[in-house]
Amino acid sequence: MTPRSRRRKHAISQLNLMVVGFKSLGKTSFIRMLFDTLRIRREDNIQLPASLFQTAEKPGDAEAASTKELYSFTLDVEEENEKISLTLVDCPGFIKDNELRLDVQVTEALRYIEAQFDLTLAEETKVKRNPKALDSQIHACLYFIDNANNGLTDKDIRILKRLTARVNVIPVVAKADLLTTSQLANLKKTINRDLKFHQIPVFEFAEAEEDTDIDQELEDGEEQEQTASSFQSMIPFSLIAPEDAIITDPNTSERIRGRQFPWGIIDCLNPKHCDFVVLRNVLLTSHRKLFKDRTLESFYEQYRTERLLARKASKMITKEQKKKLLEDLSEI
Ligand SMILES: Nc1nc2c(ncn2[C@@H]2O[C@H](COP(=O)(O)OP(=O)(O)O)[C@@H](O)[C@H]2O)c(=O)[nH]1
Ligand SMILES: [Mg+2]
């Protein structure tokens, strides 16, 4: 092993994920479930936000438990022998019935994403760069879609168009327990049709395969099995978050993360019940590097170019204004 590869093996990879969408679709519940399934390396210095534990299982709790402002927290985790510094960003839910407020909310989420690009830009322009500078860019953003609508609404489309210009967006359908198997399949189909019709460039696995080193992938049997098209066909991923109550598997008597119904139990970690486990693996393991590469190569580069052009343009305006001022003065 060369010193470089040894260094890489022990290097800690940074991964920053964000969740956005309308209110009460299960964003915070998803973050809580993800947190609950992580293998945390260092418990001593974590500062968990209180809002993460505010659940709304009882009627009347909903408003108190809803996310009031954007918050983030970082965890040192280990996933398949790799160390990851994982930052999770939770946003307040978008409000449906106020168009102006909705636009402001989306702008706020985008500003947060752009502020992270600004940090990289500032670091890049330093004479003496810090090689250990943290990568705070948002590598993937889960967009929660309301399963009560038949596909994407006009508002979803507007929001998605703005988000996909700045970040890898992964659409998800939360609360999939509220749909039957065929309803979910139909909804997924309709959402994909809407995405295609409106040309919304959400993250695509098919393209991703071209980007990855195929030789590397072939070494890994598991990767081979789960091809890009099988991931692609899962979009939008279906999610179910567990309820607070203690639920045990009737066969094993072990506690499971699930939801209990009069007719049976949902196990949120069972891939037959929802796509949580697959999505978790895509984010933390199989496509982690790709999300990061795309962020840097496409989204950051685009932002950087726009910023530099804007700076140049503002300088040009000043020059022109200066010239005009001098001309005006000479006429007096
Ligand atoms: N049926 C069902 N309810 C859920 C699910 N996930 C969350 N909820 C409930 O939906 C409500 C809103 O969830 P929350 O995570 O606060 O939504 P957020 O506003 O998007 O952060 C809470 O009462 C949750 O218990 C789910 O997968 N299925
Ligand atoms: Mg929330």
TrEMBL record:
It comes from the Eukaryota. Keywords: GTP-binding, Nucleotide-binding. GO terms for cellular component: cell cortex; septin cytoskeleton. The keyword Nucleotide-binding applies. InterPro entries: G_SEPTIN_dom, P-loop_NTPase, Septin. Residues 11-310 form the Septin-type G domain. GO terms for molecular function: GTP binding. Pfam families: Septin. Belongs to the TRAFAC class TrmE-Era-EngA-EngB-Septin-like GTPase superfamily. Septin GTPase family. This is 11686_t:CDS:1. It comes from Ambispora gerdemannii.
